[in-house]
Amino acid sequence: MTTAGWVELAILIAALAVTTPLLGAYMAKVYDPTLGRPRGDRVFSAIERPIYRICRIDPESEQRWSTYALSLLAFSLVSVLILYAQLRLQGHLLLNPDRYKGIEPKLSFNTAVSFLTNTNWQAYGDGVMSQLSQMTGLAFHNFVSAAAGAAVAVAFIRGLIRRTAGTLGNFWVDLIRTCVRILLPLAFVAAIVLMSQGVIDNFHGARPVTTVAGQTQTIPGGPLASQEAIKEGGQNGGGFFGTNSAHPFENPNGVSNLVEIWLMLAIPFAFTYTFGKMARNQKQGWVVFATMFALWLGMLLVIAPLEARGSPLLTIGGADQRTTSLQAGGNMEGKETRFGPVGCGYFAASTTSTSDGAVNCQHDSLTPIGGGTALVNMMYGEISPGGTGSGLFGMLIFALLAVFIAGLMVGRTPEFLGKKIQGPEMKLVVLYLLLPAILILGFAGAAMLVHSALNSRLNTGPHGLSEIVYAYTEAFNNNGSAFGGLTANTAWYDTTLGIVMLAGRFLPMIAVLAIGGSLGRKKVVPATAGTFPTATPLFGGLLFGVVIIVVGLTYFPVVALGPAVEHLAGHFGL
Amino acid sequence: MSVIPETSTIISPLPEPRPRPPKVRTKPGVSLFEPSIVRRAARDAMVKLNPRHQIRNPVMFVVLVGSVWTTVLFARDLGKATTSDSVFVALVAAWLWFTVLFANFAEAVAEGRGKAQADTLRKTRSQTVAHVRHADGTTTDVASTELTIGDLCVVGPGELIPGDGDVVEGIASVDESAITGESAPVIRESGGDRSAVTGGTRVLSDLIVVKISTRPGESFIDRMIALVEGASRQKTPNEIALNILLAGLTIIFLVAVVTLQPFAHYSDAAQSITVLVALLVCLIPTTIGALLSAIGIAGMDRLVQRNVLAMSGRAVEAAGDVSTLLLDKTGTITFGNRMASEFLPVGGCSEATLAEVVLLSSLADETPEGRSIVALAKDRYGLESRELPGAELIPFTAQTRMSGIEWEGRSIRKGAADSVRRWVGEKGGPLPEDLGPIVERIAMSGGTPLVVAEGNGILGVIHLKDTIKPGMVERFAEMRLMGIRTVMITGDNPLTAKAIADEAGVDDFLAEATPEDKMARIRAEQAGGNLVAMTGDGTNDAPALAQADVGVAMNTGTQAAKEAGNMVDLDSNPTKLLEIVEIGKQLLITRGSLTTFSIANDVAKYFAIIPAMFQNVFPPLKTLNIMKLDNPHSAILSAVIFNAIIIVLLIPIALRGVKFRPMGAAAVLRRNLLIYGAGGIVAPFVGIKLIDVVIAGLGVK
C-alpha cells in the first residue's frame, strides 16, 4: 500500500471519529426528546406538522411492537406497489427525455423489491430507467427504506431501555422524523459537496457531442449529485448508471471517493453513539462502535493490501504489477485508474460492510481473497457497521447472543442493559440467525442444481460458485453490490433474489421488533458487582469473537469451496 | 433509656449453640463415581436409547438418527465397498453410537446417587398403623395410607409418625434421622414454630397428637423421593432458553451440511452420507447437549447432599440470580444469645480482680450468658473453675434484676446498672465516676452492660453483646463481591440493629421488623428488579417465604412455612442460604462454560474435516489441514472420536460443577472465557491430532 493510501485511511478514520459523536448525539435527540431539543427543531417541526395532519398521525401516540411491525409492513406493501406500477408505466410518464419504455414485469418486481428493501440490486442496465423513475420512484425508496431501518433500530433501543413498557414508539413518527431531520439535511449538504467535486446534476437527456479528436460521443445527463448523496448516505447503493460509482459523473476523483465512503459509514457508526446516548450508557455505545469498527477495519486491511499486491498468477505470467509513476500497480482488472487498487479496496470493504452496495470497481475482478472478504463482510449480516439502523440492531442481536452464551458464565441469568435474556428472546434470536443460513445457503445450494441458474455464470469452477453465493448473500443482506459476472436478469434470479431480498429484509425486522417488544415489557435488573459487564473491552472482544465464530461456522464450507480454493490455487497451483 | 438484662429468664430449649464452621458440611455419603452407581449408570445408558427418551434432547436425537443411518449404510454396503471404506463407515457408526451412549451415561451417573438415596427413603416409607382419635376421645387403628387431612393421630414412644402434620398436643423428642441423617433427636411441641413433624420419623419419648396435613402419597418423603430421583424434574427457564439455542444451532448446522452437498456436487466432489453425518455430528453442540441434563440433575443433587430440598429446579436457578438476601439476625447472623465480650474495671479495680469476682458470680449461673462469662474468664484470664461448697445462690428476679452469690462472707452481685447501683448505694458504697460513661457507651453500641459489685464497692462492668457467628463477616464480604446485598432483619431497636449490622458487615438492616415489614421490604426489593432470598420457620413467615423468589424453610419450622417456601433445609441452618446461592451460581456457570467450550470446539473440527472432504479434488485445500492429519479417513474419524471422548472427560466437571470462587462478575467472566472459550478453541486441535496419531498408527486409511 502507498503512503497516499495510508493518509486517505487516516483522514477517513479521523472524519468518522469526529462525526460519530456529533451526528449520533443529534440523532439521539431526534428520537428521544427527553435528551433535549434537537437543532433546528422549529424549522423541522413546521415541515412535519402538515405531514402529520394530512396523514392523520398523532405524533404523541405510541404503538405496541406488533402494531409497529404492521405499520412497517403496510407502508412497505403500499409503497412497493406504487413503485411497481410506476416502473411498468414509466413510458407514459413525465421526465423521460430519453423515451425509455415501461419495464417488463419480472424486472419491475425485482427492481421494486430491491429498492423497497434497501438492497438496490440492479438487475437492469443502463438505458432502462427514466429520470422520473430515478428521482421519484427510486429516490423515494432510497430515503424511506433507510428511514424504516432506522425506525426499527430506534424501536428496538426503546425496548432495551424502557421499563415494563408496552409500547416502542410510533413507526410513522420515527419514519418521518428520520427522513426530515436526518436524511434530507445530510443528503442536501452532501449533494452540494459532491457537485463541488464535479458530480453532475441536471435534467438533460443524453447529448451527442463532438470530442477533441473529432469523434462523436453520447454524453448522458441527469440529476446525479442529489441521487448520489442519498445513495451513499442511506446505504442504498443503486447508482444512476450501471457502472455505479466507477462512472466519472458519479464519482469523479479521489476526494469524492473518500466523501462517498464516509457518507456510507457515517450514519451507521453514528447510530452506536445514538444508542449509547439513549441508553444513558455511552460506554456501551462505544463498545458496540469498537466492535463494528474492528470488523470493518480488519476486513478493509485484508482487501486493500491484497488488491495493491496484485495477482501472483499474473506475476508468473510476466505482468508488471509494481506501483510506478506511470501505473497504479497491483490488481487493476476492473478498476478505475482514478482510484487505484487502494481507493477501490477501501470502497469495496466499506460498501460491503455497510449494506450500501455501491461499487467503484468490479467486485468480480477482485483478488480471490479480496472478493471473498467482500462476501464475508456481507455474511456477517451487515453489522460492521451495516445499514441505517439495521447495522445497529443486527449487532445488538449478536450482543444478545454473546450475552446469552457467555452470560451464564458469571452465574446469573444473562442480562443485557438490565434486561433478562430468556426463552422467548432466545427463540427470536435463533430465528434471526437461522434465516440467513436457510435462505442464502438454501437458495444458493438450489441454484447449483438448476441448469438455467448455472448458465448465468461468467466463470466456471470455484469463481462461478462465488458468483452465485455472492448474489444470494448480497440479496439477503440487502447490500446490492454484485459479482458482476452473473447475468441476473433471468426468470430464476429475478424471482428467487426478489424473494430472498424480501425475506431478508422483513423477517429479521419483525423478529427484532418482537424481541424489542418482549424486552420492553421486562423489569430492569439493577446492576451489581454480580452483573455481567457489557460495557467493557472484554465484552467487545467477546462480541467480536461470537460474530466471527457463528458466521464462520455457518459459511466455512462454502467459503472454502469458493474464494479459499481459488486463492490457494493461485498460490499453490490447482 | 435503660437496657434491662434478663439473664435468668431466658430458657433456651435448644442445646447450647456451638460455633458452626462457616461452610456447611457435605454428607460423607457416597461418591459420585461409586462402582455400584457407575455399573447401574452403564445399564441405564442402554435403556435410555429408547427414542421416546432421546427425542426430548434434540441435539442427541440427531446423533441417534446419524448412528442408525450410518449403521444401515455399513450393513448395506458390506462386501460391496472396499475394505478401507467399510472399516471407516463401521468405525464412524460405532463412535456415533458411543457418543449417544456417553451422553446417556452422563445423565445416568448424575441420577445415580439420587436413585440410591431414593431407594433408602422408600424403605422408611413402610406402612404404619395410625391411631386416629375421634371427637369422643376413642381411637381406632387405621393404615397410614388411609389417613385423610385433618385426622388426629396419637403417636406414642417408639412409634413411627404416620404422616406429615403439626403437633397439636404434647411435646416429644423425635428421631428425624430418616430424612435428615442427623442422629440427635429434636424436640417437637404443640403451638409455636416447632410443631411440624414428618411422616416416617420416630417418636422417642412422650406422647403427642398430630393433626395430619397432607394426603398419603403427597407426603414430604414422597416428594423427597421424587426430587432426589429426578422424576419430577422439569426444565428450568435458563435450561429451556439454552435448549432453544442448541436446537437452533443444530438446525443451522443441518442446513450448512445439507446444502454443502450441492456445493460439493458442483465442485465434482460429492460426499458420502457417512462423511456428511460425521461432519454434522461434529458441528452440532453435542458436548453441551449431552451434558445439559446431567448438569441440572447434579445441581439439585449438590443441594440434596447439603440436606436442602429444592421443590423445583427453578428455585435453584433463581438462587443464582438472587441480588438481595434477607437474613434474620438471630440464629443466622448472631448466635441469638448475648455473650460476654469483655470485662471493664471501674474505680481503680484491677482487671484481674474483676475477672476473678466475675467468675465467682457466674460459676453457678447456668444461663447461656452466665456460661459465656465463665468461658471468657477462663479463656482470656486463665482462671480455673472451682467448687464453691456452701455457697448461697441469689437467683435473678424481675424485682431485684440482679443475681449473685453469698460465699464465705463474700457478697457478690451482678445485674442491671441501676439495680446494682441502688444495692451498693444502700450499703453506703461509693459510685465510681467512670461507671456512668462505660455503661452508657455499651448501651449505645447495642450491647448490654452488667454491673458487678462486691460488698459495697462496684468493681466493673461485663459487656454482653450479641455475638456474630464466626466466618459471617467474611461470607458477607464474599456476597458483596458477587454483587449480592445482605439485609439483616431484627426485632431490635434501630440503634442496636445498626451496631450489629456494622459489625457483621451487612449492607442494610431492618430494625423493629414485624412480619408485615418483612413482606413490604421483599415487595419493595422486587419492584426494584431485585430477586430476594430469605429463610424462615414460623407460620408468620409463610407469606414472606411465598413472596420471596427463593424461600428456604427450616425443617424445624411449621408446616405452613414448609409449604410456602420453595426449599426446605433439613438441617434447619439458616446460614445455609449463602451456600444455596453459591450452588445456584455454580449451576449456571457450569452450563455457560460448557456451552462456550462446546461451540468453541467447532473451529478445530472444521479444520480437520473440510480439507479431508475436498483435498482429493482441490489439493490446495491441504493447506487448511493445519493439524497435518494423516489421511482423510483418519482426520474425520479423529474428529468424531474426539467429539465422543470429550463428553466422558467432561462428566466430572458437569457433575461436580465448575470451580466456583466468590468474586466479581468481571473477574469470573475473564477467567472462564480464558479457560472455556480460548481453551475450547485450542483443546480439540491438540486432542484431534493425538487421536489421529494413534489411529493412523493403527493403520486406518
Mind sketching the topology for me?
The complex is a heterodimer of chains A (574) and B (701).
Chain A lengths: L2 H29 L9 H14 L10 H25 L15 H12 L14 H31 L9 H26 L10 E4 L5 E4 L4 H10 L20 H25 L3 H28 L2 H5 L23 H14 L14 H12 L10 H18 L7 E2 L2 E2 L2 H25 L3 H5 L5 H16 L14 H30 L16 H36 L2
Antiparallel strand pairs in A: 1-2, 3-4
Helix pairs in contact in A: 1-8, 2-6, 3-4, 3-5, 3-17, 4-17, 5-6, 5-13, 5-17, 6-7, 7-8, 8-9, 8-11, 9-11, 9-12, 9-18, 11-12, 12-16, 12-18, 13-18, 14-16, 14-17, 16-17, 16-18
Chain B lengths: L34 H13 L3 H4 L3 H20 L5 H42 L4 E5 L5 E5 L8 E4 L9 E5 L1 E5 L1 H4 L5 E4 L6 E2 L4 E4 L2 E5 L7 H10 L7 H30 L6 H11 L2 H20 L2 E3 L2 H9 L2 E5 H5 E12 L5 H12 L5 H14 L10 E3 L7 E6 L2 E6 L1 H10 L8 H10 L3 E7 L2 E12 L3 H10 L3 E5 L4 H11 L3 E3 L4 H13 L4 E5 L5 H6 L2 E5 L4 H6 L2 E3 L6 H39 L17 H25 L8 H33 L4
Parallel strand pairs in B: 11-18, 11-20, 18-19, 20-21, 21-22
Antiparallel strand pairs in B: 1-2, 1-3, 3-9, 4-7, 4-9, 5-6, 5-8, 10-22, 12-17, 13-14, 14-15, 15-16, 16-17
Helix pairs in contact in B: 1-4, 3-4, 3-8, 4-6, 4-9, 4-22, 7-8, 8-21, 8-22, 9-21, 9-22, 10-21, 12-13, 21-22, 21-23, 22-23
Provide an overview of this structure.
The complex is a heterodimer of chains A (574) and B (701). Chain A is 63% helix and 2% strand. Chain A has 574 residues and is mainly alpha-helical. In chain A, the strands form two sheets. Chain A has a two-stranded antiparallel ribbon with strand order 1-2. In chain A, helix 5 runs parallel beside helix 17. Chain B is elongated, with a radius of gyration of 34 Å. The N terminus of chain B is likely disordered. The longest helix of chain B is centred in the first third of the chain and has 42 residues. Chain B is an alpha+beta fold. At the A-B interface, helix 13, helix 14, helix 16 and helix 18 of A face helix 7, helix 10, helix 21 and helix 23 of B.
